[in-house]
Amino acid sequence: MPLLYKTQFNSQLFYNLASSPFPSTSNQNFSCRITFPTMSCSSQTTFPILRTVTISYSDLKDRNVDLSTKIEEGFGSNGLGILSVTDVPGFSSLRQNLLHLSPRLASLPEEKKKELEDPNTRYNFGWSHGKEILESGKPDLLKGSFYANPVLDVPTTDAYLIQRYPHYCGLNIWPVNSLPELEVAFKALGKLILDVGLMLAYHCDQYVSKGMEINENEGLEQILLRSRCHKGRLLYYFPVQLSTINCIQDGNFSSSWCGWHTDHGSLTGLTCAMFKREGVETPCPDSAAGLYIKTRTDQIVKVVFGEDEIAYQIGETAEILSRGYLCATPHCVLAPKGVEASGVDRSTFALFMQPDWDEKLNFPKEMHIHKELMLANRSLTFGEYSDKLLDKYYNLKN
Ligand SMILES: [Fe+2]
Asked: What is the rounded CA–CA span in Å between residue 173 and residue 167?
């Protein structure tokens, strides 16, 4: 069965697997923490709705508080690979500021948006629209993305590195004349999500260190702290008309806005989406729309978190480096459907926190994900590892 794999490289790749569609984890004992109402979807199957495990900002910033129980509940073997942080000072307004700019960016004249494109980075910096290929083989015209590194405008000036790792080492492209507010808003929100993510990474290290030894400077916090290649993605889903929505409705999860995938980096920060109808903010038009996660036992559950919360998901690299103490989960975003969704646009933001391209990763001898990528007794940099991962999916595709 062809499956869709989505990476933060802005590439959607198909690959075929005989059995399990996603890398299996070493932990198989998922238990449903909470019983909530169920939600029906296009397949008329019902799915439990689960609230994310939450950690308050005041607890998170205190390095003396033991948050192991919460980390385990959210990211551990029985968790969903996601948790959210509440009461982050300034977050709500920074989220609003940036997400309100998303439709304005998307509605810039085509020639202005063209100036923001960067084919040399395979559209992994600046504006990207219609560059991703859907499972149907057609370009994805439903959404536009704007990518930038919120911390460094110029991660490196080394021409070799820029050519070698264009998706990490490219330069930011800001609409300095057509939408100057974007740079300020993007950097402010991206840096805040990074700062909070680093606090979370500290507590992840504390939790993981109870089960395995972490060498000095090799924990998640330090790896992310010294990385030069964090990447923010502002996503805009264009308003669709009823006829298009019906096409989406006729399909299943894989034909929705964002296919099933696991993030391949370390930690992904997410905001709740903002919906607008004719420029006016509106509630989500379809209660079934949103984030779905596949559990260890292949259950599909809908996961919800508050508008004023930052959600964080574990990526594959964090799972590998933590020997499975932190667990990534396949997830998927389901588009709103039905008459109410007609004419409604959607904006959201994600920050992909990942190791530096030059970071030597101390992979375990026994890897439960992508084990074929590792040569015996050899460490890879994150850049090399990412290349191998991309090669793997391209080879599977071709
Ligand atoms: Fe994702």
From this structure: 13
Q: 183-218: per-residue pLDDT in tens?
A: 999 999 999 999 999 999 999 999 999 999 998 899
**For the segment 103-113, what is each residue's pLDDT rounded down to a tens digit?**
999 999 999 99
Q: What is the pLDDT of residues 114-141, one digit of tens each?
A: 999 999 998 999 999 998 877 677 888 8
The Å distance, Cα 8 to ligand 1 centre, comes to: 8
pTM above 0.90, yes or no: no
Interval between CA 132 and ligand 1 midpoint (Å): 15
Q: Which residue's structure tokens are 């998170």?
A: 60
Distance from C-alpha of 326 to C-alpha of 42, rounded to nearest angstrom: 31
Q: How far apart are CA 313 and CA 354, in angstroms?
A: 12
Report the interhelical angle of 181-208 vs 91-106 (nearest 10°): 130
Helix (H) or strand (E) holding 243: helix 242-250
In the reported structure, the alpha carbon of residue 177 is separated from the centroid of ligand 1 by a whole-number distance in angstroms of 31
DSSP string, 65-93: S--HHHHHHHHSTTS-SEEEEE--TTHHH
Q: How far apart are the CA of 377 and the centre of ligand 1, in A?
A: 30
d(CA 336, CA 288): 7
Residue 204 and residue 198: Cα distance in Å, rounded? 10
Among 163, 153, 143, 140, smallest CA distance to 230 is for 153
